[in-house]
Design brief:
The complex is a heterodimer of chains A (479) and B (438). With 479 residues, chain A is an alpha+beta fold. Chain A has 16 helices and 18 strands. Classes of the chains: A alpha+beta (479), B alpha/beta (438).
Amino acid sequence: MAIDSIFISNLLSLLGENRVITHPDELIVFECDGLTLHKQMPDAVVLPKSTEEVSEIIKLCQTNHTPFLARGSGTGLSGGAIAVEGGVIIQMSLLNQILKIDYEDEIAVVQPGVINLNLTNETSPDGYHFAPDPSSQKACTIGGNVAENAGGPHTLKYGVTANHVMGLKVVMPSGDIVELGGKIEEFSGYDLVGLFVGSEGTLGITTEITVKLIRNPEGVKTFLATYNTINDASNTVSKIIESGIIPAAMELIDNLVIQAVESHLKAGFPTKADAILLIEIDGVKSTLTEEAKRIESICLSQNAVNFQEAETMEERNLLWRGRKEAIGALGKVTPAFYTNDGVIPRSKLPEILEFDLDIGKRYGLEIAHICHAGDGNIHPIILYNPDNKNEIKHAIKISEAILKKCIELGGALTGEHGIGTEKLSSFGIMYSDNDQNQMLRLRKVFNPTDLLNPGKIFPEGAKCGESRINQTIKKGGWI
Amino acid sequence: MSHKLLINPIYTSFGIKEKHLLQECIHCGFCLPTCPTYIENGKEMDSPRGRLYLMEAAMNGEIDISERFFEHIDLCLVCRACETACPSGVQFGKLMEITRDVTHSVRYKSSVSKLISNFILSVIIPSHGWLSTIFKLGWLYQKTGLHWVTKNTFMKNILPAKIRNINESIPPIPFKRFAKNNVQTFHAIGEKKGRVALFTGCVMDHLFPDVHAATIRILNWNGYEVVIPSDQTCCGALHVHSGDGKTSKQLRDINLSVFSDRSFDIIILNAAGCGAHLKQYKQENNKDNPTYPFSKKVKDLTEFLATVPLRNPEFPLYLKVVYDEPCHLIHGQGISVEPKQIIKSIPGTTFLSLIESDACCGSAGSYSITETEMSLKVLERKMNHIASTGADCVVTANPGCQIQLQWGMNRKNLSMEVLHIAELLDRAYQKSNGYPLP
């Protein structure tokens, strides 16, 4: 075991009894995040309330040679917040204050435990929002968004988290506190902010984040296009981008997901449709009418059987609730699922969707789709029964095959979920040994002891230490 | 310290049905930021997702059913905000009730607190005789000035913190409850449109008789005859939340037989907690069971008023109002628009928005007594939001919330009024010609 009683008593004297969790009957809830396929219990969980406390915790871990990592709301889908080698989870939920909102410079400074949507809710009465809007935005933390470089439906027009982070306060794996970037673009020296965003919590732990605030567009229009075949829907996506229009968002949802959403949330999706596209445009009001007409005619030319605009704010919100909570709604149709995050060039959308359906049939598992279609982030969701060992194996095989196909088509392993523990085995498909070694050398510079979030991103063998990930079935439970 | 039990009742009692209910949770975490206890202490075990995980681990025999387990189960307010947030419709409240029920028998074996709690739940609360006696003593306690002494003099420092808190939270106690021992009928004013029954409950009946009076005047004014069947008893919600499923079922059966008279079109409630529970009566039975038509007839006052042509208040009531949504109205019954519409229909009234109006106030049945520390933290957050609105009055629709919010006002020295929505509407109607006087 990586920790002993002296180490625990040091943590207790630093944080007090209420903010240190060490009993297995409680630690069990930290054994997985949004990815329930991989599980490993930490040895302790601590809840710091300040940057200094994070630094002290890290120093204690280093002295004791104990692995440690940060965790937000545990909504990640690649296992990024699992303590693969045991050790300490630094739970950031009490670092949840919005420290500053500055409309003159259009920035906000937040602690990492701030819920993504809370920042938008706080600033929207003044006409601003935080642009990265992952589907989990109601629950996920901005710290987690930074770690995974989270995207979301509106990534298509507004970019991912990396495009919105200006500065970071980071506690390094040594315990040193550094400030990277700031409230203006810095072009001198190395772009360390760029390096940290998306590093999956393996280079340091951020405790303050300076982000851009984006002015709300003057006008927004949201459309629902209904299709009899998923192929028509995916063809439409390329046609719209080809026409020169960049929608704010363009989401493809297939019938299985529509059924799940309509069984409880009732967002108003047509249950008989094979697929729908949720398309949003925004900008200066006067230009939107013309754009809307063009989008409608493209959809109809690609055999959309219905094209309608959300007429009220309530209707629009409901459509988006259906889309963003679709993942959760799948609980209505399956006891467990596995979400793939592969990316392909947009033009290959029909090809990959056909491949998914084929491979699903071959293994006898259903695959649902909620794609950020506009940027080729496909999100096939493999439904399986966690009590059936074969189905678990097949789900993993299907996912690996899809990722391999994505790379063949010129795509990538992940659009927004990160590699985590989930895609370790596929990492080598995309990156050569040389590529990987270069990245590992970089990690060594920041994280020389490899105690910060070990077992993530790089496959077995590419690093020292042995993964303890538990992929076996627990009695009656999910894996 | 942890006190391990020899048996794990969840392992032995949870079957296929419970497993399916648990498996509807796919661990997305959407519930976390809506959970008052998670917001306060940031611990996964005190979030809905974490609690479900603990239940599942217990079902699988992976963890012990110890006091450590109950700490997280008991800290849950059962406000059910997580159910509103849940994309796959996990029935969290139901799972929590089942968990508390199956573990009830093995808890606090032979301890004094268990005996007291059992006595209160199974003897006092179901009996209007006992309740009347106790509330009369309470009335006397306040009238003689003894309550003032224990609240405001050195006496308060002698009381243990928990007793002191309960003592301070007691609202003014009326001399008499509203309902009588015989059937009461209140006739419609003008053309009679229907006949409804009023469920009087326990806390509302004994502590807030004025709310029942206001409810009846409103219904009469809108053309409904109101009947109060005698011998009705507590709905049993408090019992279910405390894990006493047995007494709860006995109370259910009494109420079902009292309300079996088929001449009532509707059974009206003005206590959100009771309403949510009465509507659940049907879930425990199949469709052949007589509870089915009963639950269909149960309507919250605001829900009912939204379905009838409501007489508009004629005269303005100049008040700045915020509405604090009772958990068991918005999350338990999905009723949120209706009460707001009623408030907005009153001329002269300004409806102010309240941050986190859909979050619990910390009352949660007996929670403010059993988990006082967390209850006060949740209340503090609520009162800060309320204070920042600058309203004249806070409107709600549940007796527990009324008590808790009034206590919050006293603690913060705020002079805002706390009103039940029936009291607000009744006040707006009062200047109308022909409206019955209080």
